[in-house]
Design brief:
This protein has ten helices and six strands. It is an alpha/beta fold.
Length: about 220
Amino acid sequence: MKKIKVILVDDHNIVRDGLKILLMNLPDIEVIGEVATGADLFDLLKLKMPNVLLMDILLPKMSGIAITEKIRREFPDIKVIMLTASINDESIIDSFKAGALGYLSKSIQREELIEAIKEVNNGNEYLAKAISETVLDNYKKAKDRTINQHYEITTRELQIIELFTEGLSYKEIADRLNISVRTVESHKNNIFEKLEINSIADLVKYAIRHGIINI
């Protein structure tokens, strides 16, 4: 069995030592190196090539997010999992935008850490279960507030907006919602009037900018 090669990136020795203990003696995962900074990591990558990086966010000189952006450009085959004590929506979003495939809390249990490494190594995104529940709850609350704040957009109009942003045509939206094309156009006109916009492109930009849809 080919082992998943992992490098640990954290500026605290005790954290790296703890991770090595958690991952030692596994038949399919091997820690092949550890570093404390981004500069050290890129030096190590000249000698060793991992499948997965376990990356802290708060690192000296160069943050884990900045390192991840550079990894995506220079080593696109390396997968990155953020392993951090910094749990907030902004850090999570910035990490995934930078190219990370996973985001874990340092309080994670061994079994979930192993599961995350395997999932990310296969190219799948992984957000720790405890974090994902919080993010989804925050998103739902924010979305509910946004809907109420944005010119009394109705539930049906929100559906129309979401389907337009998916690139569906009038006919496809009508079929999806079991309504007529004329009704779709009527809803669209009402939305345009409420939001004071003039095109579907403007609608997509508005929906993304104001959090009416999730991306």
